[in-house]
């Protein structure tokens, strides 16, 4: 594969009016001017944006060196932790236990509840709250690892997951606080 600039001219070989005048006076001038133009283009490309000429006029976009490339992904990247946080949030939301437990505890109010049921409620609330807290930790880790080269979708996902996960943690804490104290139930008498 050759990297030399060959066959860069127009595909039709019909002479343009300004080329006709050049070729009529000096036949070798057209070939020399094409070579001179190719050399000038190559020099401008080699010199880069700090060179004089067209590139230095500021009409072109900023140099590609100022734009940051995305950081490489991997197992411990910000993008990975953002996706893990999102999947954990989906699991927390789809389980539905936290919202259901909140509704159950809110509907109990001042009713007496057996100690065994209170222990079950506390275990379920703690488990669901821990899942929401782990989700928040992964979202925070994703935001801490993000840098200037991190993809924007990873930041957006981590931020949204963090906010939603914190809301679930608050629901878990509120539910845990609202659970009434357990009361010993007297043993049931056999009916007979």
Q: What would you say this structure looks like, in words?
A:
The protein has 192 residues and is mostly helical. The mean pLDDT is 76. The longest helix is centred in the C-terminal third of the chain and has 31 residues. The protein has a two-stranded parallel ribbon. The protein is rod-shaped.
Write the layout of secondary structure elements.
Elements: H1 17-25, H2 29-47, H3 78-95, H4 97-108, E1 113-114, H5 115-145, H6 152-178, E2 182-183
Helix pairs in contact: 3-5, 3-6, 4-6, 5-6
Q: What's the pLDDT, averaged over the residues?
A: 76
Order of helices and strands: HHHHEHHE
Strand composition percent: under 5%
Widest beta sheet: strand line-up: 1-2
Percent helix among the residues?
55-70%
Task: Characterize the biggest β-sheet.
Answer: 2 strands, parallel
What would you call the structural class?
Answer: mainly alpha
What separation lies between the terminal Cα atoms?
99 Å
Point out poorly predicted stretches: none
How many E-type strands?
A: 2
- Gross morphology is rod-shaped
Brief rundown of the structure:
The chain is an all-alpha fold and 192 residues long. The protein has helices at 17-25, 29-47, 78-95, 97-108, 115-145, 152-178, and strands at 113-114, 182-183.
């Amino acid at each position: 594969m050759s990297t030399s600039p060959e066959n860069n001219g127009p595909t039709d070989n019909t002479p343009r009016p300004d080329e006709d005048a050049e070729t009529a006076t000096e036949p070798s001038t057209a070939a020399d001017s094409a070579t001179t133009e190719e050399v000038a283009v190559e020099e401008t490309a080699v010199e880069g944006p700090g060179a004089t000429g067209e590139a230095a006029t500021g009409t072109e976009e900023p140099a590609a060196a100022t734009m940051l490339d995305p950081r490489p992904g991997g197992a411990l990247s910000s993008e990975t932790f953002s996706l893990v946080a999102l999947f954990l949030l989906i699991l927390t939301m789809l389980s539905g236990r936290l919202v259901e437990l909140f509704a159950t505890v809110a509907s109990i109010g001042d009713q007496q509840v057996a100690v065994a049921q209170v222990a079950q409620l506390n275990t379920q609330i703690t488990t669901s709250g821990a899942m929401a807290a782990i989700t928040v930790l992964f979202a925070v880790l994703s935001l801490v690892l993000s840098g200037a080269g991190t993809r924007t979708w990873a930041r957006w996902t981590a931020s949204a997951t963090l906010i939603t996960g914190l809301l679930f943690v608050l629901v878990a804490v509120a539910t845990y606080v609202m659970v009434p104290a357990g009361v010993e139930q007297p043993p049931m008498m056999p009916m007979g």
